[in-house]
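[retry 2/3] UDP-N-acetylmuramoyl-tripeptide--D-alanyl-D-alanine ligase: previous attempt timed out, resubmitting with same input.
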Amino acid sequence: MSISWNSDAFVEIMGGRPFGNLPSTITGVSIDTRTLQKGEAFFAIKGDRFDGHNFATAAIGAGAGVMVIAEHKLPALGRFNIPMIVVPDVLVALEKVAAAARIRSRAKVIAITGSAGKTSTKEALRHVLSEFGTVHAADKSFNNHWGVPLTLARLPDDADFAIVEIGMNHPGEIRPLVKLAQPHIAVITLIAAAHLGHFSGLDEIARAKAEIFEGIVPGGYALLNRDDQRWKLLDELATEARVRHVLGFGENARAHVRLTDCRLGSEHSDIRVALDGKEIDARVGAPGRHVVQNMLAVLGCAQLLSLDIEKAANALGNLRPEEGRGRRHRLRIDGEIATLIDESYNANPASMRAALDVLRTATVGEGGRRIAVLGDMLELGSHAPKLHAGLAEFIIDKGIDLVLLAGDEMTALADVLTDKIAVEYRPDANALEPVLLDTVRGGDAVMIKSSKSSGFSKLVETLVNRYGHKTPA
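[retry 2/3] UDP-N-acetylmuramoyl-tripeptide--D-alanyl-D-alanine ligase: success.
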C-alpha cells in the first residue's frame, strides 16, 4: 500500500505556507520521532505531556522530509536546516490531512467504539479482512483526538478496507472523530461502566457512544450488541441519527448475527452462528465468552461487506490475543509449566469480570492454583468503592484460589474478600512484585489485570523475564 502526497497539495490541504525547499513528495505522516521513517512529515503536535516542537532535532536525525510547525514557533525553529510547513494549529492541520485522505480513499471504512473490546475487535477484524484484501487499521489503541486523525492521515489511497477505533471518556469526543472517519459500518461492542466517573450513568455513556452514528455515510450500517441492556436506547439513537440500517449481533433471538451454540475452552471456543439464512461453525482461536461476542461483530461486518462468510469464519481459528489483552505466556518454574494470562492493558468492571471468567477456564497442572492479580480500575469516580467491592462475589463464584491486589481503589475489594478467600494486598504494583514472585509456582494459572496507568504490565515483564519463556502460549 502506498502513502504519498504531492508537496504542493499537502500544503494547500493544510492551509499552511512553506518555509524552505520542500521535497516533491511526502511519503508518510508521523507525530513520534521514535517511529518516524525517512521522508515522512513530522507533525509537531503539542500534547498533554510533550510538545512536538521540542523534538525538532530528533525529527531531523530520524530523516523527516518536512516538519509541520505552529506559526508562533517559527522564530525558534527557523534556524533548523529542514523544510517546514507553517500552520496556525498543528493538530488542526493533521485533521485536514485526515479528511483529505478519507475523501480520496476507496476503502470500505469500519469504525469501532464501545466500553470494552474495541482494540481486540479491531485486531480480529484486521486479521479476517486481510484474507480479502489490503487492510489499514489504527496502530495500538490510537483512538483519541490525535490517534484517529493520525490513523486516517496514514490511510493509503489503494487500501481495500480501513478500520478506525474511536474511544472517549467525555461526552462530545466521538462526534468530530467519526465525522472525519465517515464509516460505512459503525460497531458498538458494549456499553459498560468504563469512565463512569465522567458520566451520570450508563444511559449517558450510551448516548456518548451513539455519537458514532452521526458520521455514518448515507446508506451505511450500525452494528450493535443485541444482548446489551442499552440496545433499545442505541437503536432509538441510531434512528434519530437517520441511520437506515441497524443490525444486531448476539444470542438474542432477533439478532441478525445470532449465536446458536458456544463451547468455551481453555485455549479457544467453538461456536455456531446463524446469519444470512444459514448456520456456520467456527473455532475462535482466543478463549472467553466476551471474545465470542466480539467475533459475532466481526462476522457481521464481513456479511455487510458481502464477503465469503465461511472463509471469514475459518480465519477466526488463527486468531491470537494481543499483548495486554489476553495474550498467554508459558512460564517454566522449577521444571514445571505455569500459564500467565496478560490482561494488563486496561480494566473496567465488565472487562474485569470477563478476564476472571477466562481464568476460571484456564488449565492448571497437578496442585496448581488459579491466581488473580488485580489492580485499580480507574476513572470510576464516586462509584469506585462499590464497583471494586462488587467483584468479590464474582471472584468467589469463579473458584479463584488466590487473589493478589494492589492500588488505592482495591482496598475496597480486599476488605470484602478478607476471611472469604486467600488474599494479599499491597499499596502498589512495585510492592506487590516480590509477593507475586514468592507465590507463583509451576502448574499455576496467573491472570494479571488492571488499568494501564497502575503499572501492572511491569509484573508481566518481570515474570516473563524471570522464567525465561517469552514465546506466547
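[retry 2/3] UDP-N-acetylmuramoyl-tripeptide--D-alanyl-D-alanine ligase: The radius of gyration is 23 Å.
[retry 2/3] clearing retry counter.
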